[in-house]
Write a structure and sequence with these properties.
Layout: H1 8-19, H2 39-56, H3 60-71, E1 75-78, E2 85-88, H4 96-112, H5 125-132
Antiparallel strand pairs: 1-2
Helix pairs in contact: 2-3, 2-4, 2-5
Length: 137
């Protein structure tokens, strides 16, 4: 179970759930809730990736995978059957700040390739989003 504690009632529900757990068979992790990226960030990121992909002649999904492997920290999973470690690269769990950092890296990548892209606060960004908008599968 995951609880977002944002008021006294949600705190009480979390404490009640913990009180019902079996000793020695439960792990409780408490961490600060991360603010996840927003729709505008996501839309801008995919337009950037699509623009670069079109420039280099690759699919947008392929380039996204390459970006994840280059710029994202892997999440290491261990196979229960084989005890083998598997690295999973994902942007899904990045906070707003982490995702903004990734976008900065992709803008810099475009610049190194002499691809001019507008920054998110540029008045031309809407035309850019219309031209390169992309919805991942």
């Amino acid at each position: 179970m995951i609880f977002a504690i944002d008021d006294p009632d949600s705190m009480a529900r979390a404490i009640s759930a913990i009180a019902q757990c079996e000793f020695g068979k439960t792990e409780v992790v408490i961490r600060r809730q991360k603010k996840t990226r927003n729709h505008q960030q996501n839309r801008y990121y995919w337009a950037l990736v699509n623009c670069i992909a079109q420039f280099v002649g690759e699919s947008t999904d392929f380039l996204h995978e390459q970006i994840k492997q280059r710029y994202c920290r892997p999440k290491i999973l261990r196979s229960v059957r084989t005890d083998e470690e598997i690295a999973i690269y994902t942007t899904t769990n990045l906070s707003t700040t982490e995702f903004a950092g990734l976008i900065d890296e992709v803008i810099a990548l475009a610049g190194r390739m002499n691809i001019r892209v507008p920054y998110p606060d540029d008045p031309l960004v809407n035309k850019f989003l219309e031209a390169y908008g992309y919805e991942p599968a």
